[in-house]
Every structure is written in C-alpha cells, then in structure tokens.
Amino acid sequence: MHSEQVTAEPPSKVDDVPSPASGADRAPLDFDVIIAGCGPTGAMLAAELRLHDVRVLVLEKETEPASFVRIVGLHIRSLELMAMRGLLDRILPHGRQRPAGGFFAAIPKPVPKGLDSAYAYLLGIPQPVIERLLEEHAIELGAQVRRGCAVAGFEQDDEGVTVELADGQRLRSRYLVGCDGARSTVRKLLGVGFPGEPSRNDTLMGEMKVGVPQEEIAAKVTEVSGTHHRFWLRPFGEGIYSVLVPAARVSDRAEPPTLEDFKQQLCTIAGTDFGVHSPRWLSRFGDATRLAERYRVGRVLLAGDAAHIHPPIGGQGLNLGVQDAFNLGWKLAAQIRGWAPETLLDTYQAERQPVAEDVLDNTRAQTELLSTEPGPQAVRRLLTELMDFDEVNRHLIEKITAIGIRYDFGEGPDLLGRRLRDIDVKQGNLYGLLHRGRGLLLDRTERLTVGGWSDRVDHLADPTAALDVPCVLLRPDGHVAWIGDDQQDLDDHLSRWFGRPAG
Ligand SMILES: Cc1cc2nc3c(=O)[nH]c(=O)nc-3n(C[C@H](O)[C@H](O)[C@H](O)COP(=O)(O)OP(=O)(O)OC[C@H]3O[C@@H](n4cnc5c(N)ncnc54)[C@H](O)[C@@H]3O)c2cc1C
C-alpha cells in the first residue's frame, strides 16, 4: 500500500460548517471518512480513499446485498476507470460485451469507426455482481463495511462530523459522504434542495416464469414493442423471463408492486398476461429527474444517486455515480493527507455538477424521443436521419459513454481537461501505471522532473509514447491537468493540483 509522506493537517477550507457540537460529542475521530451507503458509488469511493491510506468506514443500512437483478451497462469511461485500477480483468468474465452504439433513445445505429478508446464496447453485467466486486475490492484495500447500519443523523463542527446510527450509536469522522441513493437521508438532513421534475411515467420490472410457449411470446412482443417503448419479455434462462411494462399510475411508494399489478398491466398493453407466475423479484421505477443544489456543505458531501436522479434511459446512472467517486476520492484523500491545495475539494462540485446536468438533459431529451405522440415521433425520425452523419452519431455516443467530458481547466489545447485514452508505453500500457491512484507525468522529452511532488506523482520518461504533445500531467482520475515542455510551467501546475512540494 502506498503511504503518503506528507501528513500535516490540511489548511482546510470548510464552508458553512454549523456551530460546533457540544463538548460531549468531541470524542476522538474514529475514522477519516464515513460513507453512508454501500452501493456502487459508496464502494468505489471507499476503494479510492483506501489507495491513500485514508481510514474509511462504509455504513450500509441493508443487512444483505440487493437481490434484484437489474442488468446494467458499464459504458466506455467506466470500463477505462476499471482498467486504471486493475479491476477490468476481474469484471469482464461476469459480463457480456456488446457494441457501444445504439443507446441514445435506443435508436439503432452502428458504432462510428475509430472511437477514441482502447475499451470501445459496452459491458452488460448484473448490478448485484458489479456491486459485489466493488465492495470486495474496497474491503481488500482495507475499507471497513458494516451492514445493517443506517445513518439516521449527524452534526458537524470545525473538527469533524458526529454520525448517529438508527440504533443510537455515535461515531466520529473528519468527513461524511452521502452515497445513500435517490432518497438520501444525508441529503435531506443537510437541507440541500433537490429541484427537478417528479416522475411522470412509472415502469414495472421483474423476473418471473411464464405460462405460454416462447414463440407466442416472441410474436406478441414484436407486435407490441412497435408502439410501446417501455415493454419487453426477455428470456433469462431456466424458464425465467425479465418483464418490463408501464405501471398503471405514477406512485411515490417505496413498496414493490404485486404480481397482480403485472398481470393487469400486461393485459392492458398486450391483451394477455402470458400466464406469468412464480416471481423472483418485482420492482418499480420512475422517471423523476432531479439534481442536488450543492454537492458539499462543510464536511459533508454527496455523490451518486444521492446527488442526481434521472430515468434509466441510456444506462447512465451507475456510471455517473462511479465517476463521481473517482473524481472525489483523490481530492478528499489529498485533503486528509494534508497536501490538498486550498480549493481542490471544491473542484469536485465545480466539475461533476455540470456533468450530471448534462446527463439529466440528455435523458429528458431521450424521454421525449420515446414518446408515442406524433410530434416526438417526427423528431425521432429526423434525429434518426441526422445520426447517419458520422459526427452526430459520434457526438451522442461520446456523451452517453462519458468519454466526451472536458472539465474546465482554463485556456489551453483541446486535450486539456479531457481524459487521456489508454496508450502503449514502454512499460506496457498507460492505464497499467495508474493502479495506485497517483498523478503521472508522461514525459516524451526525458528532461522534466516531478521534484518535490514525487511522493504523489509518478514520472514516466518515454520518448516512444503515442502522444501528439511533448508531455502531459495526469491527475489520479486520468484527466489531463497540463500539456507542455517547460519545467517552471509544470511546477506551477503541480502546485495547482498537488499542493506544495515536500521537503
Ligand atoms: C431499471 C433500472 C435500470 C438501470 N440501468 C442502468 C444502466 O444500465 N446503467 C447505469 O449506469 N445505471 C443504471 N441504472 C441506475 C443505477 O441502478 C443507479 O444509478 C445506481 O444504483 C446508483 O448507485 P448509488 O451507489 O449512487 O446508489 P444506490 O445503488 O441506490 O445505493 C445506495 C445504497 O445506500 C444504502 N442506504 C440508503 N439509505 C441509507 C442510510 N440512511 N444509511 C446507510 N445506507 C443507506 C442503500 O441500501 C443502498 O445500498 C438503472 C436503474 C434502474 C431502476
């Protein structure tokens, strides 16, 4: 495990911290970071923090991992992140690789040639599997996960956060991160607004057996899915089908629907209930679209569905949350290890909130395009034509797969602020050098140095690296923080992202 040499207390910039808690709460800090929620976002964040020896506790309210099998797609950028941490080889055998195209409003178009990634495919994988693998990864790195522990309250003061569990137990940490999903307790207790649109269309989803032959189902599904986009019966193996059908009404209930609800809706939409029986699990989801007004209040932060929700069209929610965690992990670790520049932690919201805004917008657009009304159908036909232009198709794929993201790092070449694709370097591949979550100077000039930042930033001098520019400085999340060949300019940017040099 990599251990930072700079351990002095950070000159922390903590805004809006409520008045200090009572003296009795000023117990010693048990942890550096407590994470509420062990979904994909919480588990990924815990692992990222552990790369920097941060003491992490994940509190998960459920005693057992979720049982219902949502198949999610890991898009290109998430696959790249997994490769950057050496996780991709572990994940790949559990999923099915599919072409990366055809996800925008389910408009079937081929993948444009030369998509800029070494991992240019979609990996279909059950969500419980990805959750388990990420949790195992976090635990292997030393994170503590406690199940059956719901965060019920907290108070923050100038030294830390006192977290109260549902059973009354109290724990202290320097920071608390709410990765506790759409109905986030942490967000609500923080009083952070969650403006947006309520659900307009609810959908029933479940797995169950059917009572009619497969050919009959296939014929009916082909007939109905021409007019209803939120409808399918897909064989899942062992006689089980995945069933998706619009719900009768919009509901904010947390309780799952009944088999009777499915039967009624199948009859309404398809004229038959397909003899469905013996459900494995039944669930309901809506298309509410909301974005947290703030991602940070003092020592408490939000990530994943706790910060943003949107319809699952295009399969982006889990990807977005995991990418939030990747952005936040090294910054929060830097704050705790003592080398964070004053405003580094605030760049988390500055960078990630606009990305979520964009995802919310593209799902709003896709929702319209899935409407069966004549106006949206006409727009869909027009967009389908436009997507025959390679650049339009490419732009939409880069949006959904998150490889088109460019953070605003100021004036500079187009590559500045973007993620760098995996490339061949003399020691193998670039992402293979990023497993420890440190910065990296990729130097084709062989005359630069990372000097006093070598405890946080690696240096690879490689004139053969497949780059169009002399040198790049990569942040631990793989985004390009600097491009150039001048040592003084490099030092200024090392300070900007990695704080003061050691020694
Ligand atoms: C039908 C459907 C299909 C989808 N398909 C895709 C897809 O293809 N691709 C994609 O990227 N996304 C997809 N999504 C979205 C994806 O499932 C979510 O975006 C993702 O689960 C968010 O992860 P998270 O960790 O932020 O939150 P969650 O997965 O909701 O995890 C939050 C965790 O916090 C726990 N928790 C809650 N309250 C507390 C508390 N007070 N204390 C402690 N723990 C608490 C919960 O038990 C839970 O384990 C889909 C969603 C649906 C409904």
Plain-language structure description:
The protein has 503 residues and is of the alpha+beta class. The protein has 3 domains: 31-196 and 290-358, FAD/NAD(P)-binding domain (3-Layer(bba) Sandwich), CATH 3.50.50.60; 203-285, Alpha-Beta Plaits, CATH 3.30.70; 424-498, Glutaredoxin. It contains 12 helices and 24 strands. Strands 1, 2, 6, 7, 8, 9, 16 and 17 form an 8-stranded mixed sheet that branches. It has a 4-stranded antiparallel sheet with strand order 12-13-11-14. It has a 4-stranded mixed sheet with strand order 22-21-23-24, with helices on one face. Helix 1 links the parallel strand 1 (31-36) and strand 2 (56-60). Helix 1 packs parallel to helix 4. The longest helix has 23 residues, at 347-369. The protein is globular and about 75 Å long. The site of flavin-adenine dinucleotide has 32 residues, from helix 1, strand 2, strand 3 and helix 8.
